[in-house]
# Entry
Amino acid sequence: MDPALASVAVPREEPQVSARHIRLAGIAILIGIAGGFVAELLLRLIGLITSLVFFHTFSTELRAPADADIGLWVVLVPVLGAIVIGVMARYGSAAIRGHGIPEVMEKVLYGESRIPKRVMFLKPLSAAIAIGTGGPFGAEGPIIATGGALGSTVGQALRITAEERKTLLAAGAAAGMAATFGSPVSAVLLAIELLLFEYRARSMIPVALAAAAATSVRMILVGPDPVFMIPPIAQPSGAALASYVVLGGLIGLAAAAVTRAIYTIEDAFERLPIHWMWWPALGAVVVGIIGYIEPRTLSVGYVWIEQILSGDIVGMTLLLFVVLKFISWSIYLGSGTSGGTLAPLFIIGGGLGAALGSAADALWPGLGMDASVAGLVGMAAIFAGASHALLASVVFAFETTRQPLGLLPLLGGCSAAYLVMLTLMRNSIMTEKLARRGTAVRTEYAVDFLSQILVRDAMTPDPVALHADEWLGTVRSWLADPSGGATHQGFPVVDTNDALIGVVTRRDLLGKERDDVAVRKVIRRGPAVVFDDNTLREAADHMVREGVGRLVVVRREDPLRVIGIITRSDLLTAHARRLRAREEAERVIARATRRRADAVDQSA
# Structure
């Protein structure tokens, strides 16, 4: 450290990564490995419960209840599972209720990423009971929540910061998704878009390593094949690409409708005059009845997603399946049971996309739309719209099918769905619940404006400096003279060599000390300085740490020579450039709108 800096407080210089972050990455890898085994364990547990209640056998193989033949008992089985979940939620932890991801988001934003340890055990157990007894959910939501709880628990056991604990939580959640679908890249993107709320190497690298580790575990336990095996996709034509964009927009409407329906149903349950522990049992009645009519709506639906994308379920059968799945899932989820959102959304979006694609191909064969591609676009587009996770949705559909020629239709369709959803709803299916609790969740990211401006471009250059040996009386007379130009509230103090030794304020100068006291006697502390090549963000953070409203500006090569001063007011004034740019954009839009209105009037 420069000896000259020993007497001054300089901004904290934080490296992008450090040895501490490398250790955190190592811990994240271990969490990823554990998350891979936890995901497989939960899937096995779901398979065990499904086998016991629907097939009356002891097996951990994941089987579809639609293959069982238990008659009217299928109506009762989900109700019994729901009663168990209600008891677990009331006497164990109410945190097991709900989608899983919104609750994890809330802990990240307002709970210092601390998830109670019991949730790590109760959430997967309750989800296994709900899904194993016919709940129309996928296992991914509970697995993501369980992985997040695992990361949070490890973080709470270690001596780490809340920010590092958030990274481990996100690493566990990403590991859960990656282990479920074999989709490490989309798992990382989902963590960035919904949990980390940042894009920095120190957080992204541990999450990426955890997702890679969990996927490796999945490959060992399950194999390297993609989750959804579908026929090869042909190169789409230009007309087909345009059609998939339109299809994505329509699916965006469906995403908004599904989101509103879920929360309308939740509101309806909130008005019931009975305790919430009984609500899942009421929702399960609907699940059982619909399951008797259409058994494919029960339990994990990954096999049906593959059949939709492969074209094995078509026509009115497909539409009826989608409608019944939506009714069953939305009512049961709205009742407050333990379940996820992603797999049901994939079925609903994929089914709608495949049905619309088939209809368009029949009516306008020249478009060249393919029902399988339309189903894939629909599956990803409803995910993009409902979750506001655009990039994660596109990459997820690619990773789970390994169809590179589907990327362009996916990008266009998901972008259109995201646009429509943003137009219709401010919040996503993940954040609407938090917004209703008064929590502001913004999933948009932009570079901090203050980090783009250097101190030298916003400081007041050549400020008035006081000499340490001046008498207070002389300085007070100068301050009282209206023509003296003393407009500052703070003044650097320099010695006979013009080297900085401190800062004083007007309050210090006009205090109780006698006039024959030197200025150096009223210096309360060492000076806080900022370098001219620091950003305004670094300057603002330094002000907060030091508890001051102004910083002396110096150069790195001469850290005791005053070249300027920057204040809190200067930080606010710097935003004027950004606001002027926005106002200019608004004026351009207003002029264009007026011209269009005038053109319409003239044509009329």
Q: What stands out?
A: The beta strands are 460-461, 466-467, 490-494, 500-505, 529-531, 550-554, 564-567. The chain has a mean pLDDT of 87. The chain has three domains: 19-221, 238-436, 449-572. The radius of gyration is 30 Å.
